[in-house]
Amino acid sequence: MMRGYFWIIVITLLIAATPLLTSSNTFFNFTVVVLIIALAAQGWNLLGGIGGQTSFGHAMFFGIGAYTASMLQTHLGVNAWIALIAAIAAGSLAGLIVGFLSFRAGLRGSYFALVTLAFAELLRVLANASEWTGGASGLLLKLEPSLANMQFSSRPTFMLLALAFVFISLVITQHIVNSRFGAHLVAVRENEDAAKALGVDVLTVKLKAISLSGAMTAAAGVLYVQYFLYIDAAIAFGIWISIEALLAPMVGGRGRVLGPLIGAFTLHGLGEITKSFAGRVPGIDLMVFAVVLIIVIAFASAGILGLLKKLSDRFAAKGGA
Amino acid sequence: MFSPIIIIEAMINGLLTGAIYALVALGLTLVYGVLHIINFAHGATLAAAMFAVWGLNAGFGIDPYVAIVIVTPVFFALGYGLQRFVIGPAAHGDDGNILLITLGLSILIENALLASFGSDTRSIPSDFAFSVVEAGPFLLSSAKLVGAVGSLVVAILFWLLMTRTDTGKAIRAVAREKLGARLVGINVGHVYAVTFGLGCAALGVAACLLMPTFYVNPRIGGAFVNIAFTVVVLGGMGSVPGAVAGGLIIGVVESVSGLLLGESLGQIGIFIIFILVLLLRPTGLFGARV
Predict the structure, then answer these.
(1) Which of B44, B47, B38, B39 is nearest to B106 (CA)?
(2) I want to staple B143 with a disulfide (CB 3.0 to 4.6 A). Which of A20, A25, A87, B212 is the partner?
(3) Do B278 and A115 touch (CB under 8 A)?
(4) What is its main location (chain B) (predicted)?
(5) pLDDT value, residue B290
(6) How many domains does chain B have?
């Protein structure tokens, strides 16, 4: 009956309850960053996890979202929430354009990964040189905390906002997984030619997926600027966010609705633990991420959620016997 | 406007740099042609090789050109081991997995370099870096000339290895027909690892030829990996002559667009070529088919 919504609600409520247990700003900072990454990663998961189209350039959507929102607010004085809608639309449109160009050219697998990376890098160079984006010095949003400006001086409040975004993305993804469109998407991932032979309109399915994917990751970019009130080309279109968006679902469980959220919490939790042991060695957390990625691919390609499912199946089988 | 002399000089400089790009791309295209995988860790491996060259110079006073005899075999062994013991076993034969594993390796190598050397940019100080050769109206950097000639020599050696030796014959057999090669007694896992090792060895040579005029920092691989992918895609994935032609073209494009558009926008030419080739002619100029 619930078809997957149960765990979404439980986990969302658990995170929403944390302000009752702690008032540590370090914790809320950590959680906000994890939630922003989980949102960006859910966008990746829709296209790469469920649809099987591995992108190395989701930074392009993150950056388009972040820059659309901040340029509309700083240059034109547009309201933050309207800027959010515009940013989501821009991310979705960018997805359609890139998807149309690359899927129509028949790019799959490694080639698709490379072309998305190239688009993100192209945008990074442009954003770094253009005056509109503030060039290399970036754009600063004015600090004016209020609901209308989507800025909150209390960190728990911002965490709840980010959580609301993630919750919506989880519900949308679950809805897609349960739908006919979701089944088509999985069919395209498993065997594109077979899906085509069975009458699935492969190009349309992929385009729908990449435009939704771009929209979600763009929303994450908006959250980023609303929280840090600053953006530059290296943050917005940098390879770091493309990698974060890919790592979280890979580790959590690619193609699974809760994969990105679980993966983002696990990776960044491990990163924090490593940093507390190793001190201020630069790049040490990313080294841990990379090792985890390789281990996951080598030994548990279905990620943490895949492992849990295997364990619970084994347990159920034993209990039944 | 720029005088023709300046533009021609930029083109010649582009050709010289492009020859080294070709050498960097050679390993990438060889690995793609034989293993059919895209090695995303190629740039990070080059950065590691450049740090090795820098370290040999800073620690033991070894000249970068002399370092070729040390760095090249070490990186061959490293590449052999990586493919044999990490990439091969971890990927379970799935191309998508290989791409992700090499991405993981590139993050690991890059950040290991960052953790050990910090983010400072380093170079090898030498008078040779500033010496020039006069060729008619043009002044050319001696170190760049040596780099270009060295790269072309290595490309020819590669070609001889592939066409004239038993190892090359085995590599080509595996590239053409993996199962058939196994049936006639070729150890496919070994050939894969040798190919990967050769790709890394080419990077070792490239690092030694680059260091006299170039600098190194942990993030340098990213810049090279973009260029190398563009070269390989332009020349045709898996084609050695394609890598050489692609390298020279990209060198010229980068140099001329840098002159016309300025340092920061100059890189745009490369990405636009990359995207256009992928979208319009993914087989590249010399590639047979994807």
Answers:
(1) B44
(2) B212
(3) yes
(4) membrane
(5) 35
(6) 1
Q: What's the start-to-end Cα distance of chain B, in Å?
A: 41
Among partner residues A125, A281, A282, which is closest to B265 by beta-carbon distance? A125
Residue of A nearest to B269 (CA): A122
In percent, the amount of chain B with pLDDT more than 90 equals: 34
User: Is 70 exceeded by the pLDDT of residue A319?
Assistant: no
CA distance B16 to A107: 32
Block residue for tokens 């929102």: A69
Does residue B27 fall inside a structural domain?
yes
3-state helix, strand, coil in chain A (%, to 5): 80, 0, 20
Phi, psi of A104 (to 5 degrees): -70, -30
Q: What local confidence, expressed as pLDDT, does residue A75 receive?
A: 92
Q: What percentage of chain B has pLDDT greater than the value 70?
A: 98
Residue B181 lies in a domain: yes
Q: What is chain B's mean pLDDT, rounded?
A: 87
Close Cβ partners of B282 (under 8 Å, ≥ 6 residues apart)? A105, A106, A107, A111, B233, B290
Contact (CB<8Å) B95/A110? yes
Q: What are phi and psi of A39, to 5 degrees?
A: -70, -45
Residue A300: its chain B contacts at CB < 8 A? none
Min distance A35 CA to chain B CA atoms (Å): 22
| 213-242 of A, contacting B, C-beta below 8 A | 239
Burial category of B160 from C-beta neighbours within 10 Å (exposed 0-12, middle 13-18, buried 19 and up): exposed
Q: Length of chain B in residues, anyone?
A: 290
CB-based contact (8 Å) between A119 and chain B? yes
Q: Which residues of B fall within a CB distance of 8 Å from A111?
A: 278, 282, 290
CB B158, CB B30: distance < 8 Å: yes
Residues of chain B with Cβ-Cβ distance to A125 below 8 Å are: 264-265, 267-268, 271
**A111, A291, A298 ranked by CB distance to B278: nearest:** A111
- Compute the average pLDDT of residues B195-221: 91
Q: Is the pLDDT of residue A320 over 60?
A: no
Task: In whole angstroms, give the CA distance from residue B186 to residue B262.
Answer: 51
Is residue B266 a part of any domain in this protein? no
Tokens 């900072």, residue located: A29
Residue A263 reports pLDDT greater than 90: yes
Q: Which domain holds residue B123?
A: 23-218
User: Rounded to an integer, what distance in angstroms lies between the CA atom of residue A141 and that of residue A70?
Assistant: 7
Q: Does the distance separating the beta carbons of B268 and A110 come in below 8 Å? A: no
Question: Residue B258 above 80 pLDDT?
Answer: yes
Average pLDDT of the segment spanning B90-100: 80
Q: Residue A41 pLDDT > 90, yes or no? A: yes
